[in-house]
Amino acid sequence: MYALVDGNNFYVSCERVFRRSLVGKPVVVLSNNDGCAIARSDEAKALGIKMGQPWFQCKHFEGSHGLIALSANFSLYGDLSDRMMSIAGSFAPRQEIYSIDESFLDFSGVPGDLVATCIEVRARVLQWVGLPTCVGIGPTKTLAKLANHIAKTAERKPGSYPSALAQVCHLGAMGKPELDSILAATSVGEVWGVGRRIGAQLVDAGVRTVLDLVRLDPTTVRRRFSVVLEKTVRELQGTACIELDDAPPPKQQIMVSRSFGHAVTRGVDLATAITEFTSRAAEKLRNQHSSAGAVVVFIRTSPFRADDPQYSGSTTVPLVRPSADSAELVASALTGLRRIYRKGYRYAKAGVMLVELQSQYLQQFELDWYDKDAELPTIGSGAGHQVNATPQRDRTLLMTAMDEVNRRYGRGSLHLASAGVGGASRSWSMKQERKTPRYTTEWDEMPIARA
Amino acid sequence: MPVNEVGQAWVWSILNTIQAGFPSPAEEYASERVDLNKVLIKHPLATFLMRVRGASMREAGIDDGDVVLVDRAVKPCHGHVVVAVVDGEFTVKRLWKRGSNLKLQAANPTYPDIVPRDGQTVEVWGVVTNAIKSMQK
User: Fold this and answer.
1) Is there a contact between B92 and A451 if contact means CB atoms under 8 Å apart?
2) I need a surface site. Which of A100, A128, A200, B1 has the fewest CB within 10 A?
3) Do B44 and A312 touch (CB under 8 A)?
4) Alpha-carbon distance A26 to B20, whole Å?
5) CA-CA distance, A219 to A229, in Å (whole number)?
6) By CA distance, what is B45's nearest residue in A?
7) pLDDT tens across A101-130, in order?
């Protein structure tokens, strides 16, 4: 049996851990450059704000309904995610982290009441970190994912499903009539891996609900649709056949993580693993024509080797500017690894997550001086490396023009956006007016408690 | 923490006697520098740091500017110093709890206790386990 533990409105929930006044209010978290909503509180969903909706389209709710918009704070989300994953991972012998807020727990061969265990996972994450989650349980990952959707919907929209399924839903422990009625009440578009296009095709073919889909013959599905959908149908029928690597990628971040076959202790071995994971993630990133704004790196020991000293570290490394360049992403990931690596521990798992994804074509160039195809300059990119797949353009004219502007209007009026001026982080280059403090990762930004 | 050289040699000789043939007891039992994280933080996944502002906990030894370690895995009990949420803000106070009655006590006579009004709920966010006070402000 698999259990999918998934944070509710994850980024909003992270913000609410330290800003309790946001509880009960409509809140959205905006993508970098404050472009569009990438997380919504239930109250914001109730206003009709859609995932990915541009901010200018929902801005009017600020005045009319007290909508609060925040800039994404990935340092905070990365740390709270790491805590949540570590807690959830301590309940099952195997855990696969799927995204910043989702992980599959593999309970195969574990005796006991799974629902009771998952209620405890949920309670502990809520108590220890302050994050609400829902847990979906099923014999395959696709069913666990579907169960999770049902657990969430049952909680958020009372009446949509039996209330007993709210928060923790076990599709593998139901009688057939009950299961069928639940699958019949769920539209086919909610199934993991059924995208908008395939979903529309299915509906055209008269396959509207998950029950309709389950009842199809897998071989026919392969012939009429695809091998991918055939696997989905088999998974819904209870036959596990999707490995996480082949699973549909999460929408907002790219994650590559592994449990090591045997404990790893040396930094150099971790570096090799992190390099490999980052390269793989970068490949996925380019496949979907995106670039990443930050790299999250984590390493941890095994909670199941009770005699081992326990350690888990995670950090978020922002990039000077969004990138899809493997070398640049790897360099950032390794910078992160150096920051969190501690000697003397037996590491069991490591991973890399690319976050703040944006379409490559939407990238904002500070000034359109560069060839779109040319490599962007990496001057002072922090990691102290030079990465150039293509020869850099001769920027003599540019420099001359810059000097001229600076002479005329004063030093510093114009600088290279990628130059990391004054050693500052790139916060200056990003429009993040509504960002909350990095409460848990910066000594100078910790929350204030009045006394 | 410095270890007495003689003492260490003694411990090792004992270990060698007990575990004769064991590859390298020195490696297994090598002293490690005391790690404050391990000593002070019992539940690392559930522990957060907060900066204290204000003087209401002075007599409990918590001053303005101190940093407190807040453990969410500890069950809040009567007498614990806690971080509670009052009107959406974090506040440090001592928890007074008798039956279903609850209030937040200041540790400074010039500050009033916080007694929840009827129907008002007090959220205890976490339990303060330690305070860090810098002597070089």
Assistant:
1) yes
2) B1
3) yes
4) 67
5) 10
6) A83
7) 999 999 988 888 999 999 999 999 999 999
Catalytic residue among B31, B42, B56, B100: B56
Compare CB distances from A446 to B32, B50, B92 and report the shortest one's residue: B50
Is the CB of residue B68 less than 8 Å away from at least one CB of chain A?
yes
What's the confidence (pLDDT) of residue A26? 97
| Closest residue on chain B to A450 (Cα) | B91
DSSP state of A427: G
What mean pLDDT comes out for the span A322-347? 91
B93 is catalytic: yes
Cα separation of A80 and A142, whole Å?
26
CB contact under 8 A, A449 and B32: no
**CB B90 to CB A451 under 8 A?**
no
Are A350 and A270 in contact, with CB atoms under 8 Å apart?
A: yes
The reply to whether B123 touches chain A by the CB within 8 Å rule is yes
Residue with tokens 């009990």: B77
**In whole angstroms, what separates CA B19 from the centre of its chain?**
38
* Mean pLDDT, residues A175-183: 95
Question: Tell me, what's the ipTM?
Answer: 0.80
Report phi then psi at A449, rounded to 5.
Answer: -115, 125
H/E segment holding residue A150: helix A141-156
Q: Which amino acid is at A337?
A: L
Phi/psi of residue A97, each to 5°? Answer: -85, 120
| C-beta atoms of B48 and A439 within 8 A | yes
DSSP annotation of A121 reads H
pLDDT of residue B26: 56
What lies within 8 Å, CB to CB, of A22 at 6+ separation is A12, A15, A16, A41, A68
Encode pLDDT of A387-417 as tens digits.
333 333 444 455 556 566 666 665 555 544 4
State the angle between helix axes of A326-340 and A267-287 in degrees (0 to 180), rounded to the nearest 10: 140
And the tokens for A46? 């109730």
CB A348 within 8 A of CB A302: yes
Catalytic residue among B24, B31, B42, B93: B93
Beta strands in A115-222 (DSSP E): 133-138, 168-170
Q: Among A121-135, A197-211, A233-247, which is the least confidently predicted range?
A: A233-247
Q: How far apart are CA B2 and CA B75, in angstroms?
A: 36
